[in-house]
Design a protein that fits this description.
Glucose Oxidase, domain 1; alpha/beta
Length: 132
């Protein structure tokens, strides 16, 4: 299945998907050293985002989240790509300064179309997401 959307930050990645139906706060909700979601009660708490195509509706919380994403990229714990239902300034900025492919506004809901563990190919330059 191929989904089409909007390029926010270009680039390409192919990896396993981690899907969250809940918004994500990178500041305080994701450990930049381990790459694990740490927010208590979050549906992905304990899951690693490192090297995965991280699918979630949008970001939440502090603008410091952008810099947490950047730190994760420098530490090698960042997602390979991000797919949002509709991205926000915090996630967009974090992905742009970290050179992480980011797409949003897909023609089908990525939260229900992509399953955790599925192999996903992101061609953000073209705004395409392929579920392999």
């Amino acid at each position: 299945m191929i989904l089409s959307g909007r390029k926010v930050m270009g680039g390409r990645a192919e990896a396993e998907a981690l899907v969250s139906a809940e918004p994500v706060s990178f500041y305080g909700g994701v450990d930049p050293v381990t790459g694990c979601v740490t927010e208590p009660g979050h549906c992905c708490c304990g899951e690693k985002v490192s090297g995965k195509v991280f699918v979630f509706p949008r970001g939440k919380g502090s603008t410091v989240g952008s810099y947490v994403i950047y730190r994760m990229k420098k530490l090698g714990t960042a997602p390979a790509a991000v797919i949002n239902t509709e991205t926000d300034a915090i996630i967009a900025t974090g992905c742009v300064i970290s050179d992480i492919p980011l797409v949003d506004k897909l023609d089908k809901d990525p939260i229900t179309s992509i399953r955790t563990g599925a192999r996903v190919r992101v061609d953000a330059d073209r705004g395409l997401v392929e579920i392999i």
